[in-house]
Design goal:
This protein is mainly α. It has 2 helices and no strands.
Length: 68
């Protein structure tokens, strides 16, 4: 028993896409691109982050407790 095959409309298409994007769907990628571009252009201002030495000691203590 064969199933009926749906048919496509035979008329011509309207010629345009009726999808509208919200403003943030365009703004967020544009902002992200600009931020990444600024990070690439200005690497001379990059500095290494300094951490609290107590945090390093805490991690070392936890690691020593876990390993034995």
């Amino acid at each position: 028993m064969a199933a009926p095959v749906p048919t496509l409309p035979s008329g011509p298409s309207t010629g345009g896409v009726g999808v509208r994007l919200p403003w943030w769907a365009v703004a967020l990628p544009a902002v992200a691109f600009a931020v990444l571009l600024l990070m690439i252009v200005g690497p001379d201002e990059a500095r290494a982050a300094t951490a609290d030495p107590a945090l390093g000691r805490l991690f070392a203590r936890v690691l020593s407790l876990l390993t034995g």
